[in-house]
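As a representative case, we now present a protein record of this kind.
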Amino acid sequence: MNTALLCGSVYTGFLLPICWYDCTRLRIPNLLSGGSFASLLLLQLLRDPSPGLLLLAAGAAGPVLLLFLMHRLTGEGIGLGDIKLSASTGLLLPGITWIPALSAAALIGLITVLPLHIAGKINRKTRIPFAPFLGAGTILIWILSVTGYAPLSRWHI
């Protein structure tokens, strides 16, 4: 089986209960985000051990550091569970392809939440689960990356 497809399937397999949990309880269990990270790390190392653990960890650290910075700057607008989940995004997507994934997640979230805000269904204090948006952005960019979408090639290191 294609390892890239296996990694995407594992990510999606963890993402479904993560999104359900985040939408119903506004939190992401460490067991699920940690399981996703550990599974993807193992699969990536089995797929191609040449980059090594350090390079894979660096790829996972990028989205974690960016979301943690946003967490600190926004007064905890981004939850710690989302930050931990973003480590799996960094492992699933090669190089810095996580940047377009986080951008897509933010755009999907905005397109979803803005009409609700305009309609008065939610306000600025409403807590909104981010895992579904992070997952959707990650899967969208992963699909484009796996299918060879040319503009994404410049994001690979």
